[in-house]
Design brief:
It is a single chain. The protein has about 725 residues and is of the alpha/beta class. Strands 7, 8, 9, 10, 11 and 12 form a 6-stranded mixed sheet that branches. Strands 2-1-6 form a 3-stranded mixed sheet. Strands 3-5-4 form a 3-stranded antiparallel sheet. Helix 27 crosses helix 30. The termini are far apart.
Length: about 725
C-alpha cells in the first residue's frame, strides 16, 4: 500500500534523501515541517503531489515549465515579464503576456487539489510559498559536506523532457542544470576530501561519481580505498569503469596519474600501494579582499612566477597553466602539448589584470600527481588551466578546462578545439587565442560573484570594481546606478587604479545610451575625462584603450582618434574579444562596412559564447542595416533583444530594419519596447547623437526609424549635444 495515500502529511528526512525520495514516508507527529502540503520533484521527470497523494502536475508542457521556473526562482518572486520572455520569446510582448495569463490560470487550476495557496499570484509576479512546498532541488542546494545525504536526490537530469519548450527557456534550463551540478559537485568533492577511512571514502566517492561520472579524482579515491581494504580486484574494476566512462563521454583515456596508480596496484607486492596516502595539508585561510598582488608574492622560493607588474592595492586573479597531457600521439609529437601550454601562457600575459604562473613552473606537478590542491597550496592560485592534446589522423584535438581552485576545484569552463594540424605553429596560436579570449570574461564574472559574497566592510578598490560589472550588464536602472557608485568609490579609494577609471567610463556610455543621464552633456565630458585618465595611468592596458576608443567613437564622434586607440589595443592584446567588437562598430560608424564585418567575425570566432553577446552581437544589426540587408538586420536584432530586452541600443537598428519590412506585429512589439526604454526617443534625437560619418548611413538609419513610426520630434526635448 502507498503509505502517502493513507496519511495527511509528509515529512522530509535524511532517510528520504538517501533513498532518492522516490516514495513519500510517514511523518512523525512533531515534525516542524509537518505543514508541507505539496511535493515537487524537478530532478528527472517532473512530478507534483499533494500530501494526500493527489496529482498536481499540469498536463501542458508550457504550464509545467511555468511551475518549474517559479519553483526554482523561490524564495525570490518570478516577474511576469521575465516569465513571458522565457516561455514565449518569439512572440510580441503583448501576445506573450496574454499567453502567460492563460497558463497561470491553468496552473492554478492544476494546483487547486492542494486546497492551499501554493503559488501567490500578483499583477507583477508569481512566487512559490516555500513553507507549503517541498522541492527536491532546494534540498540538494542546501546540502553541505557534513550533511550530504540530500545529494542522493540528484539521480537524473533537471527537468528531464522539458527541452524545446522555447529557445529562451532552453538557455535558462542549461544554466540551471549547470548551477545545480556545480553546487552538488562542490559539496561532494569537499565531503570526499574530508574522509580518511576507506569505508567512508568508498560511499563518498560513489556519491561524487553519481553526480560527475567522469571525475577522475573520485575514481582514484575509489581505487585507493579498495586497495586499502585489500580488494585489489575491485580497485582494478574501478579503473576499467573509469576508462570506459572517459571513452564514452569525452573520447579520452585516463590521465597519467590514474594510469600510474593502476600500475602500482598491479605491480609486485613489495611495490604495491599499501594504503591511501596522507591527506594534503589544509590550505591557508582565504586571503583578504584585494590581496591579489600580495598573494602573488607568496610562492615557493626559486619557482618563477610570470606576471604583469601590479600596483599595491590593485587585485587580480592568479592563474596557472599546467603542462598539457599528450594522448595518442606519435613520438614526433612530444612538443605539441608543451608548445600549446607555453603559447597559452604567453597569451594570458597580455591581460593586465591577471597574474600568470607559467607552465614550466608547474611542470613537476604535471609529471607527478597533477594534484590541484597541492598546486594551490604551493602557488596561491585562484584558477588552474589544464587539458589534453590528441592527434587524430590529420586533425588535432585539444580538450581544455578551467578549474576554480577556491571553489572546491570546480570546473568552471571547458571547451574542445578541433583543428587541422598542417601548420602546427599557426594551430597553437589559434587555439591559444580562443582559450584566453573565452576564459577572460568567464574569470571576470566568477571573480565578481566571489567579491559580491564577501563582507562589504573594508572592500578593496578591486572588489568594488568587480561588484559593479554584473550590475552594469543587467541594465536595470536601480542596480546600474549602484554599480556606478561602486566604481566611483573604487576610484576614491585608489585614485591611481586605471581599470576602475576605464570601467567607469564604460558605465557612462550606457548611462547616456540608455537615456538615464540627468545631464547628458556633463556625462559626456565625464566619460571622456575618465577614459583619458585610464590611458595615462596604464598606457599598455588593451581593455582601457579599447573602452577609451569606444567613448571617442560613440559619445564624442571622434572616429579617427577612436580607430587609433583600437589599433593600439589590438596590437597590445590581439586576443581581447571586446577590443575586436568595439573596433568593429567604430569601423561601421566610419562607413568601413567590410572591415567592420571582418572584425565582428573575429570577435565571434574568439568568443562564440561571450557573456556580453547581447551587446556585441548587436553590432551585426547595424552593419546589416547600413548594407541594406534588412532581413539579416531584423534577424540579428531579434536575437540580441531576446538575450537582453533592457538594452535600448539593441532595439534601435532592429526597429529601423523592421521599418523597411512588412512585419507589422513584430514591428509594433519592438517599437513599443524601445519607446518604453527611451520614451523621449525621436528621429531628431537620433540624428543629433548618431556617430555615423557618412550621410547615406545616417539617412538609411533615420528613414528606417521614420518608416517604423518613430516620432520625428518631441514636444519639449532638447537634442543631446555631442562633444
Amino acid at each position: 500500500m502507498d503509505l502517502l495515500s493513507t496519511q495527511p502529511r509528509i515529512q522530509v528526512t535524511s532517510e528520504m534523501a538517501e533513498s532518492g525520495f522516490k516514495q513519500p514516508i510517514v511523518p512523525t507527529p512533531h515534525d516542524p515541517r509537518d505543514h508541507v502540503v505539496a511535493r515537487l520533484r524537478l530532478i528527472g521527470q517532473i512530478e507534483a503531489w499533494t500530501a494526500g497523494a493527489e496529482n498536481l502536475l499540469p498536463s501542458g508542457r508550457k504550464t509545467r515549465a511555468l511551475l518549474a521556473v517559479v519553483a526554482l526562482s523561490a524564495p525570490k518572486p518570478a516577474l511576469r515579464g521575465r516569465l513571458a520572455e522565457l516561455l514565449w520569446s518569439r512572440r510580441p510582448e503583448e501576445q506573450a503576456r496574454a499567453s502567460l495569463r492563460q497558463e497561470i490560470h491553468r496552473l492554478t487550476e492544476s494546483l487547486s487539489p492542494a486546497k492551499t495557496e501554493i503559488i501567490q499570484v500578483t499583477r507583477e509576479h508569481l512566487v512559490l510559498r516555500p513553507d507549503s512546498t517541498w522541492v527536491d532541488v532546494h534540498e540538494v542546494m542546501r546540502a553541505t559536506p557534513r550533511q550530504p545525504a540530500s545529494l542522493a536526490l540528484l539521480d537524473g537530469e533537471l527537468l528531464e523532457g522539458l527541452d524545446g519548450v522555447d529557445p529562451s527557456f532552453d538557455l535558462w534550463l542549461v544554466t540551471e542544470r549547470e548551477r545545480l551540478l556545480d553546487r552538488a559537485r562542490s559539496v561532494a568533492e569537499t565531503a570526499l576530501k574530508d574522509q580518511t577511512d576507506a569505508d567512508e571514502i568508498i560511499p563518498a566517492a560513489q556519491r561524487l561519481l553519481q553526480i560527475d561520472r567522469a571525475h577522475e579524482g573520485a575514481w582514484r579515491a575509489l581505487m585507493r580505498a579498495y586497495a586499502e581494504r585489500g580488494e585489489r580486484g575491485m580497485a582494478v574494476q574501478a579503473y576499467d569503469r573509469c576508462r570506459a566512462v572517459l571513452a564514452d563521454m569525452m573520447d579520452a583515456v585516463p590521465s597519467q596519474e590514474t594510469q600510474k596508480l593502476l600500475t602500482e596496484l598491479r605491480g609486485p607486492a613489495s611495490n604495491r600501494l599499501p594504503m591511501r596516502p596522507p591527506s594534503a595539508p589544509a590550505p591557508d585561510p582565504e586571503p583578504e579582499a584585494g590581496s591579489g598582488p600580495e598573494r602573488a608574492d607568496k610562492v615557493t622560493p626559486g619557482i618563477p612566477v610570470v606576471r604583469q607588474e601590479a600596483r599595491p592595492g590593485h587585485g587580480g586573479a592568479q592563474i596557472g597553466v599546467l603542462p598539457l597531457q599528450l594522448v595518442g600521439a606519435g613520438p614526433n609529437d612530444s612538443h605539441l602539448a608543451t608548445g600549446l601550454a607555453e603559447e597559452i601562457t604567453t597569451a594570458l600575459m597580455r591581460f593586465r589584470w591577471m597574474f600568470v604562473v607559467s607552465s614550466s613552473s608547474l611542470a613537476r606537478f604535471a609529471a607527478e600527481s597533477r594534484d590541484e590542491s597541492a598546486i594551490r597550496d604551493t602557488f596561491g592560485l585562484d584558477f588552474l588551466l589544464d587539458g589534453t592534446v590528441h592527434r587524430i589522423g590529420s586533425r588535432l584535438r585539444a580538450n581544455m578546462r578551467l578549474v576554480d581552485l577556491r571553489a572546491g576545484n570546480q570546473i568552471v569552463w571547458a571547451q574542445r578545439f578541433d583543428r587541422e594540424s598542417d601548420d602546427l605553429l599557426s594551430l597553437q596560436d589559434e587555439i591559444a587565442a580562443a582559450v584566453v579570449a573565452q576564459i577572460d570574461p568567464a574569470i571576470l564574472l566568477i571573480e565578481a560573484r566571489r567579491s559580491a559574497s564577501r563582507p562589504h566592510v573594508d572592500a578593496s578598490a578591486y572588489d568594488l570594481m568587480l561588484r559593479a560589472l554584473p550590475l552594469i550588464s543587467r541594465l536595470e536602472r536601480g542596480p546600474f546606478i549602484e554599480g556606478g557608485d561602486y566604481l566611483r568609490r573604487s576610484i576614491i579609494l585608489e585614485p591611481e587604479y586605471a581599470a576602475a577609471h576605464a570601467w567607469y567610463a564604460y558605465w557612462h556610455v550606457f548611462l547616456v545610451g540608455q537615456g538615464w543621464a540627468e545631464d547628458p552633456q556633463a556625462a559626456l565630458e565625464t566619460a571622456g575625462e575618465l577614459a583619458e585618465r585610464a590611458i595615462v595611468l596604464d598606457p599598455v592596458d588593451a581593455r582601457g584603450l579599447s573602452i577609451a576608443g569606444h567613448v571617442r567613437a560613440y559619445l564624442h564622434r571622434r572616429l579617427r582618434d577612436a580607430i587609433s586607440l583600437h589599433e593600439r589595443a589590438l596590437s597590445l592584446n590581439p586576443n581581447l574579444a571586446m577590443a575586436w567588437a568595439l573596433s568593429a562598430i567604430t569601423c561601421a560608424y566610419a562607413g568601413q562596412l567590410d572591415e567592420a564585418d571582418r572584425r565582428i567575425k573575429r570577435y565571434k570566432q574568439l568568443s562564440p559564447m561571450d557573456p556580453y553577446a547581447f551587446i556585441f552581437d548587436g553590432f551585426w544589426t547595424v552593419i546589416y542595416l547600413l548594407r541594406g540587408d534588412y532581413e539579416a538586420a531584423a534577424t540579428a536584432g531579434r536575437d540580441v533583444t531576446q538575450m537582453n530586452s533592457a538594452l535600448s541600443a539593441g532595439f534601435k537598428p532592429y526597429v529601423a530594419a523592421l521599418g523597411y519590412l512588412n512585419r507589422p506585429r513584430e514591428l509594433l512589439a519592438a517599437r513599443e519596447r524601445l519607446l518604453a526604454l527611451e520614451p523621449d526617443f525621436t528621429v531628431e534625437r537620433f540624428l543629433s547623437t548618431a556617430p555615423f560619418e557618412r550621410e547615406v548611413d545616417r539617412r538609411t538609419f533615420a528613414d528606417g526609424l521614420r518608416r517604423a513610426g518613430i516620432p520625428e520630434k518631441a514636444l519639449s526635448v532638447a537634442p543631446v549635444p555631442a562633444v
